């Protein structure tokens, strides 16, 4: 750094310490806006970056602009300087000066960068370096936070973190917190993707003449592109394995069928093969290899042990144990053989019930599971098209669900294949004795389907609602009938009240009869008393 830059940053550091400067921490591509402070904009002003002119306006309103790339990208808005997308070279000191040279507003722009080497997507067991930098660190501190809980990782204050051998536990979003004066001024997040490891078994055993599966798989899909791979025996023999190749249709096995069976489907995570008619000379070490587009590769190794002279045992029936009220996954894996394709299948419960649970059908858009009415509220399966895994999940298992389940598949040549699995349900007493608390009841009897696939509680609610509606209708009808009866009774008992005109007519037709008494001299006749209301009809 030149002497002028050292002096500039030293002066600015003092300015920041005294609270007279604003400091902006930005990543590349972010926007920054700086204010000109108390400068009199009507008198003109200039913005400079490290003493180089960016933009300005004269007292007469004539704009001026520098020649640098930053000056071409900078924009003015009523004295405010706006840089829409900052670059690393934009770091430095920004100064707004009024034309009276009495008002100066200074700012500091720090560009923050984060990097992962050799790449943000690496293979398992690779050494990875995470780096978090600031253009002019000065007094800032760094702290790396590890996923998934974002707990502190590494030494406080260090901006470089080295992971010697990454695993799947290191996969996720890593966070770099930048602090200045014990205050977090910037947080940067970087994604680290860990692919693999490629898994297999340490050892598999097979008798002479039998068959054995050589497992090789990835725990989950990875973002790296697999371009080729395959199996080989170490040391090499005449046993021919297929090779992995990628074409327009995806990643597939390429080879001819011999004693090695392989899937004809598009592959993603499962690269297992099956070795038939095992010979004593087949014993040894087998290596499964995947090669990626960037030149990296990963391997998985297993040892095949051939037990000489032993009879071929029947296939072991796997046993799945589930807690009462819990869930159970019943495995069924078959990748096909050579050119054979799975076109149908089903899951069923063995005697005494022989209850079908799921059927696998082939339509124009691929294979799909269709659930039957039996145990429909318990059976769970993926909506995705099954390719090699036809696993069935049972929820809320009960003691009555224990037994043997059969997964059967049908291939395009008409042949069939089946696999059995036994389900055992832990009774509540057994779990209590083991110190395991049984799961709480979550519906049970009320959630069982009664009719049309609807749970019992739904039908009870519909019945109660219907009964309440009938009662409301009956009450409404009774109230209306009672109101009508009262109205008729009131009209029947109503008495006719003559109007004032009728009363005048009545008095005209029936003049008042005078008595024989004559009034005294100088006195008027006393009027007759009014006729009572109940005598109106008699008068009329």
TrEMBL record:
**SUPFAM superfamilies assigned to the protein according to its UniProt record, in alphabetical order:** Immunoglobulin
Keywords, A to Z, come to:
Membrane, Signal, Transmembrane, Transmembrane helix
Q: Which PROSITE patterns match?
A: IG_LIKE (PS50835)
* Every Ig-like domain range: 84-186, 197-303, 315-424
InterPro entries recorded: Ig-like_dom, Ig-like_dom_sf, Ig-like_fold, Ig_sub, Ig_sub2, Ig_V-set
Give the span(s) annotated as Disordered.
488-540
Q: Which Pfam families match?
A: Ig_3, V-set
Name of the featured protein:
Lymphocyte activating 3
Q: What is the lineage of its organism?
A: Eukaryota, Metazoa, Chordata, Craniata, Vertebrata
């Amino acid at each position: 750094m030149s002497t002028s830059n050292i002096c500039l940053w030293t002066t600015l550091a003092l300015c920041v310490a005294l609270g007279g400067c604003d400091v902006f921490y930005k990543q590349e591509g972010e926007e920054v806006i700086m204010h000109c402070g108390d400068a009199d904009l009507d008198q003109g002003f200039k913005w400079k970056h490290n003493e180089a002119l960016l933009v300005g306006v004269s007292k007469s309103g004539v704009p001026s602009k520098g020649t640098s790339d930053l000056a071409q990208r900078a924009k003015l808005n009523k004295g405010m300087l706006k840089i829409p997308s900052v670059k690393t070279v934009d770091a430095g000191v920004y100064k707004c000066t009024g034309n009276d040279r009495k008002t100066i507003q200074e700012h500091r722009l720090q560009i923050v960068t984060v990097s992962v080497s050799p790449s943000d997507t690496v293979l398992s067991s690779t050494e990875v370096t995470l780096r978090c930098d600031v253009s002019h660190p000065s007094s800032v501190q760094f702290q790396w936070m590890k996923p998934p809980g974002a707990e502190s990782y590494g030494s406080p204050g260090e901006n470089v973190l080295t992971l010697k051998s990454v695993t799947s536990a290191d996969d996720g979003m890593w966070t770099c917190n930048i602090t200045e004066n014990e205050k977090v001024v910037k947080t940067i997040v970087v994604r680290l993707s860990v692919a693999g490891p490629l898994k297999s078994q340490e050892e598999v055993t097979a008798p002479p003449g039998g068959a054995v599966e050589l497992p090789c798989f990835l725990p989950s899909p990875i973002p790296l592109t697999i371009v080729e791979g395959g199996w080989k025996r170490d040391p090499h023999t005449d046993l021919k394995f297929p090779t992995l190749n990628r074409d327009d249709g995806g990643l597939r096995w390429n080879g001819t069928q011999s004693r090695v069976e392989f899937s004809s489907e598009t592959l993603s995570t499962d690269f297992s093969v099956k070795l038939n008619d095992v010979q004593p000379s087949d014993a040894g070490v087998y290596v499964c290899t995947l090669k990626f587009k960037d030149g990296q590769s990963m391997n998985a190794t297993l040892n095949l042990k051939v037990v000489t002279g032993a009879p071929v045992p029947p296939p072991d029936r796997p046993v799945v144990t589930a807690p009462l009220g819990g869930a159970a996954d019943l495995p069924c894996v078959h990748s096909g053989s050579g050119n054979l394709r799975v076109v149908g299948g089903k899951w069923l419960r063995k005697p005494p019930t022989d209850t079908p649970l799921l059927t696998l059908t082939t339509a124009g858009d691929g294979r799909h599971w269709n659930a039957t009415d039996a145990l429909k509220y318990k059976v769970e399966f993926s909506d995705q098209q099954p390719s090699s895994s036809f696993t069935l999940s049972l929820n809320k298992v009960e003691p009555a669900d224990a037994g043997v389940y059969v997964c059967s598949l049908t291939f395009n040549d008409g042949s069939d294949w089946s696999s059995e699995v036994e389900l055992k349900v832990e009774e509540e007493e057994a779990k209590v004795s083991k110190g395991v608390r049984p799961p709480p009841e979550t519906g049970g009897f009320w959630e069982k389907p009664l009719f049309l696939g609807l749970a019992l509680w739904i039908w009870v609610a519909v019945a109660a609602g219907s009964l309440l509606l009938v009662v409301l209708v009956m009450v409404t009808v009774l109230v209306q009938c009672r109101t009508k009866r009262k109205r008729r009774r009131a009209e029947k008992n109503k008495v006719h009240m003559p109007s004032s005109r009728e009363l005048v007519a009545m008095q005209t037709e029936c003049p008042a009869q005078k008595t024989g008494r004559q009034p005294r001299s100088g006195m008027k006749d006393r009027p007759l008393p009014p006729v009572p209301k109940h005598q109106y009809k008699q008068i009329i």
